[in-house]
Amino acid sequence: MFTLRPARETDRAALYRICLETGASGQDATHLYTDPLILGHVYAGPYLTHAPGFAFVLEDHGSGEVTGYVLGVPDTAAFEATLDREWWPPLRELYPDPAGVPRADRTPDERIAHLIHWPPRAPQAVLTGYPAHLHIDLLPAAQGGGQGRALMTTLLDALRGAGARGVHLGVGESNTRAQGFYQHLGFRELSRAPGAATYGLTLTAPS
Prior knowledge:
8 helices
């Protein structure tokens, strides 16, 4: 029913749509955001532009629509530096920094705009053992049947082939289904903060 293939530039709109429709801890976030593109600008677009070799999608045979993706990079620190130079500056022209709005009063759009101006950095303590990172999102039609595992296996093999010794990811604290999925694949919890947890998986034996 599905074809797993490398992502293409022509998939960009689909990736942004999936990002939005899974943007509330795996649930549809369309009703939360005034700008339907802002989540994709942070969590999908930069990977398709700056790490296309580590972007894979599921395409539904019947409809031809992309219904899921996995995106990653083998070197998170280098990726963050690239985005600082090339990705964030134009977006900062489009989205004002909501620094003057108290954090508790910010709209969902303003909270994401804040990330555009002040993108979080992966902690060095995580990067030492898990320098790669990834995002995976599937629409309900693509969930189950091993599609998520297939996407993850494809990306993990690509990261391993690029020499990444470990990979980490973030997951919403309330998204227990995703946490169970990652644990089943061998990920272990590295840290937990209010609202989110970080998981890691070793890909290659230490030299």
